[in-house]
Amino acid sequence: MKDRIALIADDEPAHRRMLGAALESIGMQCRYAVDGEEAVREVAVFTPHLLVLDLRMPRLDGLGALKRIHELLPTLPVVVVTAHGDIRAAVEAMKLGARDFLEKPIDIEELRAVALDLLDRPGPAARSPAADADQDEPRSLVGISSSMRQARETIRLAARSAATVLVRGESGTGKEVVARAIHELSDRQAGPFIAMNCAAVAEGVLESELFGHERGSFTGAEARRRGRFELADGGTLFLDEVAEMQPHLQAKLLRVLQERCFERVGGVTPIRTDIRVVAATNRIPTEEIASGRMREDLYYRLAVVEIVLQPLRERREDVLPTAHHLLKRLKPDGDPRLSAQVASALTRYDWPGNVRELANVLERSLLFAGNGEIRPEHLPPSLRALCSQQDAEPITETGVRPGVPLEEVERELIQKTLMALGGNRTRTAEALGLSRRALLYKIKRFGLRDG
Ligand SMILES: Nc1ncnc2c1ncn2[C@@H]1O[C@H](COP(=O)(O)OP(=O)(O)OP(=O)(O)O)[C@@H](O)[C@H]1O
Ligand SMILES: [Mg+2]
User: Fold this and answer.
1) pLDDT digits (tens, 9 = 90+) for 99-132
2) Residues spanned by the domain of 158
3) What residues does ligand 1 touch, defined as CB less than 6 Å away?
4) Are residues 159 and 284 in the same domain?
5) Same domain, yes or no: 152 and 173
6) Rounded CA separation 412/92 (Å)
7) pTM for this entry
8) Residue 139 forms part of a structural domain
9) Quick one: which H or E segment has residue 103?
């Protein structure tokens, strides 16, 4: 039980101490959060094994926190603490995925028993009834940022129609994940999902790959062959890197999209096809159109619905949820964890290769970490450097300039420390030699951001 971490979220210090003592007495390590916002953050960074969550808290209340925590770590067992007789809140919390509840005043014995029981029975991935009702939620696309939520919502709506979808985003942002999600959620799910990377083959080959060919239509065409447009009949055709297509093929594609009809290479018989097209590109369509590489009319045909995936560095709040998701995928039976330093470095790194790079880094790190926690020494050099940077970057090097009002220096120092420590107030207070209370007061007075 010693390596089991419990997170206790309660705004009352005396309560926190009591709950902590009870869980320590069964051998757990405890961490604390004083409000809902902090609870969400601590869950993201420390992936605890158990969360005891008071429902009545400032800033973000327990139910609000529970919703967000559930998105971050759907399997985390949560015990909520409710006011005596507040059965409505307890029921609400259970609906949101809490596994048990305790009424105030807390019976220590009961808490211990509930905790031991939950740790014993990891249970099903706690699924909320809300999630069950939302069968059409694209669950494969992880992320809590508003842009990811919006992407999921658009996928959900697009899946219900037969509209053509254009997915845009840098390499590794999940364009193919989106295409598959649309297919899986659509009424074509039983049909085929056929993918074609338009940049991967020479033009002539691409044409016959897409449209098929009749026997003898060109040297080497010994048999009649069906193309992807035919193979995808009744399903979804994913045209990856569509902007790389040559103009003459763009014209042919446009015609299929308009008429749902085409001929094989060397053929004259029109073939009808019932497909939904999802296309993807990592280029900026307006630029491609301006430079004459992409037909404008094709762009408008493809982008009936457009989904733009933001690079990971522009939605840093998604890094840890995505990392936890990928770790689970890489090690379904294990319990892989990130050290706090690693979590912070991952969040600060720029991820030029986006989620694919994150997946690669985690895979490599797991190799080195074995069954233990992923620590800085398991990371590749570029990320390891970020870990030590945080240590080596003395907090006194925050641009103290002669003649700047002390208050301004203090404000800047606190803000930078908060950012450097991932918004963790307890650690920021420690680093600055302040009491938590004093820090909270200053954050409020200076109107600082702590995210
Ligand atoms: N939001 C996400 N949630 C979960 N996994 C993701 C997400 N985005 C990407 N991935 C994972 O990252 C990897 C890369 O995703 P994908 O292949 O869809 O990227 P892409 O945008 O098509 O990249 P490219 O342009 O290089 O082809 C895959 O392993 C995918 O499962
Ligand atoms: Mg791709």
Assistant:
1) 888 988 888 898 998 898 888 775 554 443 334 4
2) 146-310
3) 141-143, 169, 171-177, 282, 322, 325, 355-356, 359
4) yes
5) yes
6) 41
7) 0.69
8) no
9) strand 100-103
